[in-house]
Amino acid sequence: MNKPLRRIAIFCGLLILALLVRTNWLQFVEAEELNTHDRNRRVLIDRYASERGNIIVDGKPITGSAKTDDTDFAFKRTYVNGPMWAPVTGYASQAFGANQIENLEDGILTGNSDQLFFDRTMAMFTGDKKKGGNVVTTLNGAAQQAAFKGLGSKKGAVAAIDPKTGKILALASTPSYDPSAFAGYGAADEKAWNALEKDKDKPTLNRALREVYPPGSTFKVVTAAAALEHGVVKDIDEPTDTPEPWKIPLSTQPMKNHASGCENATLNRAMEVSCNSVFAKLGDEVSRDKMLETASKFGFNAEHFVPVRASSSTYDKNMDRGGNALSSIGQFNTTATPLQMAMVTAAIANDGKLMKPYMIDQLEAPNLDVIEKTEPQELSRPVSQENAQLLQKMMENVVQKGTGGNAQINGVTVGGKTGTAENGFNNEGTPYAWFISYAKTGDGSPVAVAVVVEDSDARGGDISGGGLAAPIAKAVMKAVLDKK
Amino acid sequence: MSVVTNTTTIGAIDAPSRRNTELMLLGFAVAVPVLAYINVGLALDGKLPAGVLGYGLGLGLLAAVAHLVVRKFAKYADPLLLPLAVLLNGLGLVMIWRLDQSPRLIQRAEGAFGSFTPDAPKQMLYSAIGIALFVGVLLLLKDHRILQRYTYISMALALVLLVLPMFFPARNGAKIWISLGPINIQPGEFAKIIIAIFFSGYLMVKRDALALASRRVMGLYLPRGRDLGPILMVWAMSILILVFETDLGTSLLFFGLFVIMLYVATERTSWIVFGLLMSAAGAVGVATFERHVQQRVEFWLNPFADKTWAQSEQIGQALMSFGAGGTLGTGLGQGNSDLIMFAANSDFILSSFGEELGLAGMMAFLMIYGLIVERGVRTALAARDPFGKLLAIGLSGAFAIQVFVVAGGVMGLIPLTGMTMPFVAAGGSSVIANWALIAILIRISDTARRPAPAPAPSPDAEMTQVVRP
After folding, report:
1. Is A15 in Cβ contact with B374 (below 8 Å)?
2. What helix, strand, coil percent values describe chain B, rounded to 5?
């Protein structure tokens, strides 16, 4: 009977071998896949197992971690002044995931990033508890406060940039939400989350980065830049050849002007009172392709990562002449995010050099060592230095004599442009009030702002842009200037 | 007259008893779980667990009693079987105790039943009963051949044990339990030993008939109808168990056991072919009718599908446990295998080990089981009587199949069945029955390795000597 016994022994050996192969397959080959599986609760448990690092503004954390008595999640995210900072931080919720910086820098914040491998290994030897690293932002607390307060109960957004470096100084969006309200996974959190999801005003929408609006008259700055760059206008104080009324090409409609005295107005004058006819005609003369070229250099038609992804602003590539003329005054198919218009302003304020916007200054290890620092980067040069200064001259004129008077700050040169964008088909929606501006001191400009307020009551004209949005821009600029 | 003067060729040099080897190995088998226990305590609370003395002494005492009984009553037994079983039992205790500390499981139990009772003390008690049975078997069973007398009684007993659960309500979808008040017994665990005894006795008598009285048809030896009867009966029985008790594992175990023993007894490969064909036919047949079986296969094929997840997260959670363990494991006490919930310390205890000890620990674990099987097969090879050979191979084969079916199910290699990992899983029947199984193997190995008694002086041989001193 020994021969079959030996065979049975081999068979039993094969059974054990099959198990050995399977365990190798599971724990070595497939381990990574299983560990990152959507259904694997360990990912979440691990994310909240140790104290999460903080997001820092002006040296102070705007986030925190609270110890819980939960069996799965030892810590819960807390936020300091959550609604004000939500467009910057995003949220980190035990039940509903994370977004924006909380999501993008999750590795650093949880301490799981490969960049923190050395720190983790050291902590293992010293017996320290694992801790997350910090994300230091470029934001300016005072400017953010001014922006958020300025928007108040209105619906809108503010984006402010340091033109010289591209650092984002303020990023506000209203109505906002408090990410603390649903940081856990209990019934209250679920209720808060569902309420947000159902809210018609979309508080979770980051209007500064993700919402595109028709930029209205603020886009005239881009048209003026294109006209100067492509040699259509050589002297901003020379009358343009603009009839009143001016007919939109391929259409019987005349271009409506809300301002008077636009016939043959100079570029400077047309900017001051915001003449539609002059800019529409200029856009037509520059031609669609060259308008597109300049707009693209300013950052249109591309997504920007700051590192949170900002939606792409558009200047349509396939319009007819009439469409191009309308688009040149920021209507028709032209759309822009507040960040995009802040970039336009920043490029002009920085003498034509557009810096890549960013809001993470550096990443720190738990022991505060700097792991990664963002260096300012040039994105493009949409206009030459001379033309940028001509544009500055016109924008400063807008604030001194024109529609942007509300943005004047004593003792500081301010340049700006108002805008009121028609909203919806046949202008049915309430128009959007826009204001873009920059402040200038002796050594260049420290701040460029774009403000959009959605629910302006005034219909037509640029009054609402100057009336509603300009004071907010002024407050933000003042906050930055005062800190200097 | 001295032994040396005997002229027969069989020497009477004592085979080494290896009892001291066993004692040393037992020292390790107790020390490893105690260190593991301390490890869990340090990982969970940062201090020595309060029960370390109690559990350590308890396990040590049980091991010592078992060792002394073996030393006295089975002197020549295989020295590895007892330490391996003690090691597994001890590690199982540690893991069960570790899962008792899980806040997640405590919270769940309090939510579901209003209170939480730890499983480790119960398991300690079952281990003690198991060792007591081990001792009892070694004391009462002086020679394993006595069991031959109970061939048909064993068959009847096995049938009763297997049929009984049909009259008790199903638990977690399978009718494999007998509930007597607070005591729950899984008779299948005991039946596997008793049925091996029946098979050994029956086959020893019938093996010549089965092997030789057959017609050759298309290259295969077909047995006669009357000899084929019992195998058909066992096949039918395993199918019936599957149908009525929805116990996939036990039916597979019995059928595999019978085919192995039949093959060893008759030395004919054709029996394996029959066996495989019949089990395939049976499995396909049952799978087309039995919803429970279909569901198990469905869960196995798509462990992460939404439909599976809604009904049973267990397999998916177990797979993720193994993944979380990776190569070196999270360390004892630091995993999240309790996400599998109530079965984390019983059916799925292997995934708890997989997560906390990692691939390295799993390989070691499987090798321990492999070693037990291998020592069992060696015992069968060494046994001098066919009954002992058959019984030893039957028990080791059953053990191997059970390990494969359970571990394979938990690791997603085959569909999950309702059996438990021998010695480590929480649950009384399994621990107690497997201690009895080890006791019988030890008894057979003792008989097998016992040196042959000195032959009686042979007067005939002396008479033929020409030259006398």
Report:
1. no
2. 70, 5, 25
